[in-house]
Amino acid sequence: xxxxxxxxxxxxxxxxxxxxxxxxxxxxxxxxxxxxxxxxxxxxxxxxxxxxxxxxxxxxxxxxxxxxxxxxxxxxxxxxxxxxxxxxxxxxxxxxxxxxxxxxxxxxxxxxxxxxxxxxxxxxxxxxxxxxxxxxxxxxxxxxxxxxxxxxxxxxxxxxxxxxxxxxxxxxxxxxxxxxxxxxxxxxxxxxxxxxxxxxxxxxxxxxxxxxxxxxxxxxxxxxxxxxxxxxxxxxxxxxxxxxxxxxxxxxxxxxxxxxxxxxxxxxxxxxxxxxxxxxxxxxxxxxxxxxxxxxxxxxxxxxxxxxxxxxxxxxxxxxxxxxxxxxxxxxxxxxxxxxxxxxxxxxxxxxxxxxxxxxxxxxxxxxxxx
Length: 371
Prior knowledge:
- A hairpin with a 3-residue loop joins strand 9 (114-118) and strand 10 (122-136).
- The longest helix has 35 residues, at 258-292.
- Helix 8 packs across helix 9.
- The radius of gyration is 41 Å and the shape is rod-shaped.
- By secondary structure, the chain is of the alpha+beta class.
- Mean pLDDT is 76; it is low at 1-8 and 295-301.
- It has 13 helices and 15 strands.
């Protein structure tokens, strides 16, 4: 081999890289201490960018295409190398290929519960997970903050770091958004789009990446919060409790069994209380009319007769008001005690709290049944 061939073998004439891994973020082209020839061809394929680094400084950036490396198209590198005029000698420079394609389906999730303050349930612990898509948009910042001088920087080397950063930003964004837990559980798509606007700028500024899609797949809450949500949903599905009781009675009577009679007992008791209340009101109204109208038949009755004595006793001692505990009211209505407490808290069923206990009057129960 003559001297010309030896020199030629030490010069790089074509620089190119074909990615067949599908998970490489950046790749430092191996120069093996060879020098790049003046006028060498740089080939950059679609979804690639090439960053030149000389003497530890970021130089020229090349997009897709075929480029001849001369002083005309590497102005930054020419300045760093001090080439005031055209150069003919070879030069050394680190060449980094960056994969700018979209990396999809990357998973994220909260390893520990996230504490949120919710207006409906107070302080709530939630867990969340989903996926996100991203691409490199600022090669120099990505190399500086993430890949460094790694010759072959792969996705799995960055996945854990990216996941923890995503969770950190997600937690902060969700706290600032003040989205109720009920809305989080029912509006995954809208919430993901809203949080993307908050997460993306922070990731771009820190790592030179752009998150193109942020998907919230699931949000889970503690069992006690799930039960509260289920109860609230059940009350909304039932709607008018009076109509629901009537429906249960009709279904039970249609079955025509002993179980049906047992099932209708609470509803029958509720109706019986209502009928008894109406009868008492009618009797008291009739008695008041009889004693209040001069010339009525009441004045012709013997004041010492048993009927007159009974009427006087009724007028002097009004009937005692029936009072129920939430458990008794639940038995009368044929529902769970928790449902009765939920109606009290919602203000639909009037009740009075004495200490830590609730008491419900018959009149309030009748008013609630009438809707």
